[in-house]
Amino acid sequence: MLPTWLALLAPELHALIDVRILRLLRIFRVLKMSEYVAEYRALGAALRASRRKILVFLSFVLMVVLVMGTLMYVVEGAANGFTSIPIGIYWAITTMTTVGFGDITPKTDLGRGIASLMMLLGWGILAVPTGIVSAEFTAQRVGARPTTRTCPECLSEGHDGTAAFCRDCGAKLPPHQRD
Asked: Is 35-140 a domain of CATH 1.10.287.70?
């Protein structure tokens, strides 16, 4: 607070306001991020493991945006603010991401129908990456991946890697062979 008052009283001391930025950095101490290193690693591993799926998903979204933006340019035209395909693509991105600035809006009934479809598609698309990464988290849990281990007594399959006994009959399982 002192640097701000000094800068107000003596304008040549405006550089002291930068000291406030250093105070802002102290907030990161409150977050104590070092306690969550294991969780950050798990998140990073899940993102790395699902990167191909996410890239395929993003390429699909890009194709939808290109097609719908071009379609909107053709349907609405320059009279309704869609003066070029890039503007139509901009509209498609803002609509699909549910940002919707409102600077460009469809005026025709067909255009509004396309916009409604884009909005619903945007809501549906929000869930896909979440599901991909969540599935990867689940797969990376210790012992979460089922194996082909078979119980010697009841012949049931798919026991967890850390299981010592059969989940169906309770018989002792043979030691798990790691890959």
From this structure: yes
Give residue 78's identity as a one-letter amino acid code: A
Neighbours of 29 (CB within 10 A): 8
Mean pLDDT by 10 residues, the chain (179 residues): 64 64 70 75 87 92 95 95 95 90 92 94 85 82 61 83 84 74
d(CA 101, CA 81): 14
Domain boundaries, the chain: 1-31, 35-140, 145-179
Look at residues 64, 58, 80 and name the one whose alpha carbon lies nearest to residue 129.
58
CA atoms within 13 A on the CB side of 129: 16
CB < 8 Å & 24+ apart, contacts of 98-107: 98/122, 98/123, 98/126, 105/81, 106/72, 106/75, 106/76, 106/80, 107/76, 107/80
Give the pTM.
0.60
